[in-house]
Amino acid sequence: MIVETLSEKVYGPNRDRALISLKFSLERAFEGLEVSVVDVHADGEGWVSVSLDGEDVEVAIEYVTRLYGKALSRVETSKLSEVRGRLSKISPEGLTVDVGPGGLKAFVPWEWLRIQLSPNAETVQDAAETFCMVENIPVYVKILDPSVEPMEAKLSERQVRLYASWTKSGLDRVVVTSTTRSRLKKALKASGLIRNVVGIEQLGVLEHAVPCKLASDPMRVAEAIVKRIPESTVALFDPEKAWEKMGSRLMYP
To answer: Which residues contact 6 (CB under 8 A, 6 or more apart)?
Structure first.
């Protein structure tokens, strides 16, 4: 049996529902393989671990870590390593990202954030609001200095490319956290607004981006989600505003 801690966190009132949803998704993904999902659980900080067993367990673990990432541990930290973490704090100085159990954190200074992503933003808060950087949202970072606490980091090119692709698409998006995909889909159907969206992009087990069709009203979609899932957090992504903030960075995503 192999146990792996993923760079995936669960939290809030939908914590248990998220673990059940993840276990079901993995069991469905592993159909045809000689592997069983023995357990999916979370520690006190919310970091998710999966326990897998069977002849094809190595293949299954590779699939899971490729999809959800592997949580960083203190013994594995190294310069220039990329890791998928969770945004935990926004301050005037930069972004704090949880990257592993035991309080392992990385810090993206405002200087890096401005150079990489948002040269035309005036403050960290300005950039964070533009790109829907809300608490618990998954963020890919690259470690620059693992010897300090928190570790110095910058956004990975993968993360910058994601925001650039959202911007170039020209579609408004409603970013939603603290709910599972199934609850979000039910909320959109119940509101009658499912026809107004392109689909649901899963960022994490409890985090999603909902691209809205052209000429639709993203604020109406956001309000409908909050009405039916009051524990959720929503943020609106405006591609025109993002284009203005990214400026020349869109040429080198």
So the answer is: 47, 48, 49, 50, 64, 65, 68, 69, 70, 71
State the chain's mean pLDDT as an integer.
94
pTM to 2 decimal places = 0.93
pLDDT tens figures, 54-76: 999 999 999 999 999 999 887 77
Beta pairing partners, 53: 36
Residue type, 108: V
List pLDDT tens digits, range 188-245: 999 999 999 999 999 999 999 999 999 899 999 999 999 999 999 999 999 999 999 9
Q: Give the C-alpha separation, 223 to 3, whole Å.
A: 40
Per-residue three-class SS string for 61-120? HHHHHHHHCECCCHHHCCCCCEEEEEEEEEECCEEEEEEECCCEEEEEEHHHHHHHCCCC
Q: How many CB atoms lie within 10 A of CB 103?
A: 10
**What strands, in cross-sheet order, belong to the sheet with 36-42?**
2-9, 47-53, 36-42
Question: How does DSSP classify residue 251?
Answer: G
Pairwise CA distance, residues 118 & 53, whole Å: 44
Q: Is 7 exposed, middle or buried (0-12, 13-18, 19+ CB in 10 A)?
A: buried
Residue 35 near residue 53, CB atoms below 8 Å: yes
CB 166, CB 237: distance < 8 Å: yes
pLDDT in tens, 159-188: 999 999 999 999 999 999 999 999 999 999
